[in-house]
Specification:
173 residues, alpha+beta, PvuII Endonuclease, Chain A, two-stranded antiparallel ribbon, 5 helices, 20% strand
């Protein structure tokens, strides 16, 4: 068993500035492929969305839906359908806008499971929000034919919203 290391300390030791852009992209690619092989992510996209799905499914025992389902990312044993979204804060971007919600009025999901990540992909806050609230609080964007939802701090105070931050932070991966 490998000894647990403080990854941030290790990264500070690595002089990433000595690598050229091609080498940095190659390192990123290798890391992404390793995460995929471990089952933490399912796609070759940025890991934010896949990681959100992975954490929620591990925390609640949900079954991940196929990648081709536009409205449902996971299903609970009782048949409850979840769309899962994640947003990662960075030094340069603190936006809380989740990725596009498609077909929102059609009710393709029962709850939105959403997580905000710190820059290092640790969980900052997480919530499960009823579809009706998402539908009420989202704004249609004609240009993208989708709905926009902002995961602001006030969301956790809404009636019907479940704070699941502790549950997600307890998941090991």
């Amino acid at each position: 068993m490998r000894a647990k290391i403080d990854i941030w300390s290790q990264l500070k030791i690595m002089d990433l500035t000595s690598l050229n852009s091609a080498e940095l992209l190659a390192l990123h690619s290798r890391i992404a492929e390793e995460l995929r092989e471990r089952g933490v992510v399912r796609s070759s996209n940025t890991p934010t969305g896949d990681l959100a799905e992975h954490l929620f499914c591990r925390a609640f025992g949900w079954e991940q839906a196929t990648n081709s389902n536009p409205s449902v990312d996971a299903v609970a044993k009782d048949g409850t359908r979840y769309q899962i979204k994640g947003r990662r804060f960075t030094e340069h971007n603190q936006s809380r806008q989740l990725s596009a919600l498609r077909n929102l009025p059609d009710g393709g999901f029962d709850f939105l499971a959403a997580v905000l990540f710190n820059p290092d992909y640790t969980v900052k806050r997480a919530a499960i929000i009823p579809h009706a609230l998402i539908k009420e609080k989202s704004r249609y964007v004609e240009h993208t034919n989708s709905w926009k939802f902002m995961l602001r701090d006030e969301v956790w105070a809404w009636t019907g919203v479940k704070d699941v931050t502790r549950r997600l932070t307890s998941v090991s991966f």
